[in-house]
Amino acid sequence: MTPENHAFTYLISNTGKSLAEGAPNAAFRWMHIQGDVAYAAAALSELSLDPVVVAALSATETRPRCTPHGDGAVVILRGVNLIEGAAPEDMISLRVWIEHSRIISVGIRPLGALDDVVASVVGDRAPVSSGAMLANIALRLVDRAEPVIAELNEELDQIEDALKDRDIAETRSAVSDTRRMAIALRRHLFPQRDALTTLEVEGFDWIASLASAHLREAVDRLTRLCEELDMIRERCQVVQDHVLDVRSEAMNQQMLVLTLVAAFFLPLSFLTGLLGINVGGVPLAQSAFGFWIICGVLLAIGVLEYVLFRIFKLF
After folding, report:
1. Given CA atoms 112, 113, 118, 124 in this order, what sign does their dihedral have?
2. Kind of pairing, strands 92-98 and 18-19?
3. Contact, 105 vs 122, CB < 8 A?
4. Where are the beta strands (DSSP E) in the chain?
5. Cys-Cys crosslink for 284: which of 37, 65, 149, 290, Cβ 3.0 to 4.6 Å?
6. Per-residue pLDDT tens digits of the chain, which is 315 residues long
């Protein structure tokens, strides 16, 4: 067995204390399997589970959902990826089979929220039922997600505050990254809320009122996080619209300058082009002062154009 592939089991009493294996007064058993898909499938096959449950818990790809099966349920959850160097929106799945006296969880990649749950079990502060254990896991997942979303809000605040000082391309890139992360997080958190709601309303008699209240708390907090992510997406859209307006205004200013330059030199170019044709009868062609006279005429036309442009407030 490699360090990446391992499993642990806790027997928990109805007072929240961890018990030794074989203790007669255990309220429920929590078993966690950590490892790749092949290892998880092999470990699950030894636990007398329905093949449908084994297939769901060891699937290669999963999405948050709750599927009742007999007197239990398959619950797929997701937690933010806080592994160093990883993207938080690359969320890590946690697959759970829950019934009255047993809860089996499967993790393909390490998940920090489970460390919090294990710490409470080791400290004899464990939930007192399988339903309360799942609610506790869901709340710990929310605890880990909240700082990530708060950081997204702070990053967007900084982008908005520094919008005038930032380069347009840099601003667009930063806003796009923030919006993409918000969309990815919401894509998993929103169905996770629905999964916990399904488990709560399914009416399993082994989900006590306290566990149901904790599940509702997890649902409420997930709803708030989804609303914050929606707000972040809308704020990103506002910033992007502002960036597009700034770029459009800059392009309009540049086009105005080019148009004014072209309009200013159009009469002068026409006159010099007309005088430069190779035919007879060009005025002042034989005059010793012809060049200077033409320059004076061009200067007078230029001054007249400048005055007209100022009168019509073209610049």
Report:
1. positive
2. unpaired
3. no
4. 6-13, 18-19, 26-34, 65-69, 72-79, 92-98, 102-107
5. 290
6. 344 788 999 999 988 888 888 777 888 999 999 999 999 999 999 998 999 999 999 998 899 999 999 899 999 999 998 888 888 888 999 999 999 999 999 999 888 889 899 999 999 899 999 999 999 999 999 999 999 999 999 988 888 887 766 667 778 888 888 999 999 999 999 999 999 999 988 888 889 888 999 999 999 999 999 999 999 999 998 888 888 887 888 888 888 888 888 888 898 888 888 888 877 777 887 788 888 888 998 899 989 988 888 888 776
Residues 6+ apart with CB under 8 A from 82: 88, 112, 144, 148
Q: Could you tell me which residues come within 8 angstroms of residue 78 by beta carbon, excluding any fewer than 6 positions away?
A: 64, 91, 92, 93, 94, 141, 188, 189, 192
Alpha-carbon distance of 179 to 156, in angstroms, equals 9
Specify the length of the chain in residues: 315
Rounded to 5 degrees, φ, ψ at 18 are: -80, 135
User: Nearest to residue 157, comparing CAs of 88, 247, 235?
Assistant: 235
Rounded to whole angstroms, the Cα distance separating 260 from 266 reads 10
Cβ atoms of 101 and 204 within 8 Å: the answer is no
Query: How does strand 18-19 pair with strand 26-34?
Result: unpaired
CA-CA distance, 121 to 144, in Å (whole number)? 18
Task: Break the chain into its structural domains and give their ranges.
Answer: 6-247, 276-311
Q: C-alpha angle 297/302/304, rounded to 5°?
A: 95
Report the predicted TM-score, pTM, of the whole model to 2 decimal places.
0.79
Query: Identity (one letter) of the amino acid at 70?
Result: G
H/E stretch holding 290 reads helix 290-311
Distance CA 224, CA 189 (A): 10
* CATH fold group of domain 6-247: Beta Polymerase; domain 2 (3.30.460)
